[in-house]
């Protein structure tokens, strides 16, 4: 397959490269894209160097089979036509298309079959907190319909991108050296702190991040589940955590829940 990565220099783009190598994904040609900021930068993939190309409205995606895009919602919207017009499948990590009726929102462990129906040649990935939750909800839903979920999330700096991760590390350095602390990517100092707000508030009093969990979970699970989330940024560099209270239509024993989760793909 010919594979493109749009946003190769970013936190997600770098993970794409790492995981494609780890899984020995069958790649004939790999093309990396970015903005003027990273164009010309070189990254090593399986011992070979690749130079980042400037993302432009041209025919660069003509021979691409799959494009993993992770360069923000605005870039995805602007370049979707350019990326897909010759037949490439765009697997988009941004929030640009997640709730569009003609774009499937897919977590392979839950609803891989939805990816087969993609009228615009776009497959959307959900928000990170939603992905890790639905992988666990899916085997429980098979035991009894899940009616309601209450979530408390603990989300690391990585969820805010590469520059935000650098800021957290910078803050720790500055604190150790008794220097003024740089605060720019997060609304407050994150080092030695937790921030109980991710993204802006919507009219109903939940933040956008919290509403993503509500809307995206329902779309992926094809469910009417009600979902109340409280999303918090914590001062770890990587790895999110969640506590999830689940209310099912009929009772499930702890043993049955444990067995179902243990047998589900992607769960440990
Ligand atoms: N971090 C996560 O855990 C996570 C989880 C789920 C979804 N997402 C989503 O994934 C996307 C990227 O997130 P991230 O955390 O990787 O952000 P990031 O570390 O800030 O990286 C952003 C990437 O987008 C590229 N980019 C920005 N504007 C561009 C443009 N006009 N043309 C081409 N490339 C452009 C940047 O390239 P340059 O360096 O050249 O500017 C960079 O590679 C966002 O939509 C985010 O919401 C992130």
Tell me about this structure:
With 268 residues, the chain is of the alpha/beta class. Helix 4 (128-141) runs parallel beside helix 6. Helix content is 30%, strand content 23%. It has helices at 11-22, 73-84, 108-111, 128-141, 162-176, 208-221, 254-263, and strands at residues 2-6, 29-34, 42-45, 48-54, 66-69, 89-92, 122-124, 146-155, 194-195, 226-234, 241-248. The strands form two sheets. A seven-stranded mixed β-sheet has the order 3-4-2-1-5-6-7, sandwiched between helices. The structure holds NADP nicotinamide-adenine-dinucleotide phosphate (NAP). Residues 6-13, 33-35, 37-38, 55, 70-73, 75, 93-95, 127-128, 158-159, 161-163 line the site of NADP nicotinamide-adenine-dinucleotide phosphate. Residues 6-13, 33-35, 37-38, 55, 70-73, 75, 93-95, 127-128, 158-159, 161-163 line the site of NADP nicotinamide-adenine-dinucleotide phosphate (NAP).
- Spatially, the strands of the biggest sheet line up as 3-4-2-1-5-6-7
Radius of gyration, in angstroms, nearest whole number: 20 Å
> Roughly how many Å apart are the termini?
31 Å
Shape: globular
CATH superfamily of the largest domain: Dihydrodipicolinate Reductase, domain 2
Structural class computed from helices and strand pairing: alpha/beta
List the secondary-structure elements in sequence, H or E. Answer: EHEEEEHEHEHEHEHEEH
Number of strands: 11
| Bound molecule kinds, no repeats | NADP nicotinamide-adenine-dinucleotide phosphate
Q: Can you summarize the main beta sheet?
A: 7 strands, mixed
Chain oligomer state: single chain
**How many separate structural domains?**
2
CATH overall fold name of the largest domain: Dihydrodipicolinate Reductase, domain 2
Mean pLDDT: 97
Instruction: Note the beta-strand portion.
Output: 15-25%
Low-confidence runs (pLDDT<50, min 5 residues)?
Answer: none
Percent helix = 25-40%
